[in-house]
Design a protein that fits this description.
By secondary structure, the chain is of the alpha+beta class. It has helices at 3-25, 29-81, 85-107, 111-131; strands at 134-137, 149-155, 166-171, 173-176, 179-182, 184-189. The strands form 2 sheets. The chain has a 3-stranded antiparallel sheet with strand order 1-4-5. The protein has a 3-stranded mixed sheet with strand order 2-6-3, with no helix packed on it. The protein is elongated and about 120 Å long.
Length: 190
């Protein structure tokens, strides 16, 4: 062996442990898999927790909506049952007055007092209904309007100015808060 060969061999030996040391510092394939699987498991746990949280929120929201739907449905049914309560509160005193008037009619000989009593009852009923938005429609002498009138028949107009107008009103029409609830039954002049 020559000194040069010896030098080369030493260099190769010196290089050999360095390469082994470098290989030892790099993680093996097995060591690389463990941190990745742990990271995947952590992400999976986080996602499962988020899914459970969102599912819980969904169930709570669905329950709240279902309770709201049931409550409003119950309120609607109760409203339908008591919808006419205000009108009945107006009509009951009038009914009481009519009962008193009937008793007075049997006992009284004075027709004028009975007539005045009936007029008072009528005015009380009309005023109470007007307070709730009921309005009588005046039709006589007005131009015929199919939106508020129902023509029963046509007759020859008594004068030229009543042609196409209401000559006579057989049944009064009424509106409730601006909406026609009963058409006026009228006779129209031709």
């Amino acid at each position: 062996m020559t000194p040069e060969d010896n030098k080369t061999e030493i260099q190769e030996n010196e290089n050999l442990p360095q390469e082994t040391a470098a290989e030892e510092n790099q993680p093996t394939e097995q060591e690389n898999i463990i941190p990745i699987t742990e990271a995947i498991e952590n992400i999976e746990k986080q996602l499962n927790a988020k899914v459970e949280e969102l599912n819980d929120k969904y169930i709570r929201l669905y329950s709240e909506f279902d309770n709201y739907r049931k409550r409003t449905q119950k309120e609607k049914i109760e409203l339908h049952k008591t919808a006419g309560e205000d009108i009945f509160k107006i009509l009951l005193p009038v009914l009481d007055d009519f009962e008193r008037a009937m008793i007075a009619m049997n006992e009284s000989k004075d027709i004028t007092a009975v007539k005045e009593g009936v007029e008072l009852i009528f005015n009380k009923l009309r005023n109470g209904l007007q307070q709730k938005g009921l309005a009588a429609m005046e039709s006589k002498g007005q131009a015929f309007d199919a939106d508020i009138h129902e023509a029963i028949t046509n007759i020859p107009a008594p004068s030229e100015d009543l042609k196409g107008k209401v000559v006579e009103e057989l049944e009064k029409g009424y509106s409730l808060n601006g909406k026609v609830i009963r058409f006026a039954k009228v006779i129209v002049g031709n």
